[in-house]
Design a protein that fits this description.
This protein has helices at 9-14, 54-64, 66-73, 98-106, and strands at 2-4, 21-23, 38-41, 80-87, 110-115. With 123 residues, it is α+β, with helices and mostly antiparallel strands. The chain has one domain (2-115). The radius of gyration is 16 Å and the shape is globular.
């Protein structure tokens, strides 16, 4: 997710080859809250020729469109730069290489890993 309260997503996308989903400030989000800023997001990547974990796919997208994401990270109004990963303990495990950490640092991207537990029905 790249965005901010004063970010104009369409202005960025006008000169971009990236195909990202747009959320506008004031939009109603799936869980019922109202977005307090506009952002671009990418989800459900699975565009590779082989199944990858979500973190690997996100990092490969950042690497394959490096220049576009550098421009996006520095675009006027962008103050939030976050990769959010949600899932159970298995799907939220990841391994980052030094080059991945360098890329995330260059783009000033925060990484959020939110594992949730499944109710087992056992008391």
């Amino acid at each position: 997710m790249f965005g901010g309260p004063d970010f104009q997503p369409e202005e960025f996308l006008r000169d971009s080859r990236l195909e990202l989903s747009i959320v506008h400030r004031g939009d109603t989000l799936p869980h019922g809250d109202i977005a307090d800023e506009s952002w671009l997001e990418f989800a459900d990547l699975h565009n590779g020729s082989y199944p990858l974990d979500v973190a690997t796919e996100a990092l490969e997208l950042l690497q394959s469109h490096h220049n576009e994401f550098v421009r996006l990270a520095r675009f006027p109004g962008v103050v939030t730069r976050t990769l959010n990963f949600f899932g159970d303990a298995d799907s939220c495990s990841m391994e980052l290489e030094p080059a991945d950490i360098a890329l995330l640092h260059e783009l000033s991207v925060h990484v959020s890993i939110c594992a949730y537990s499944h109710a087992t029905g056992n008391a």
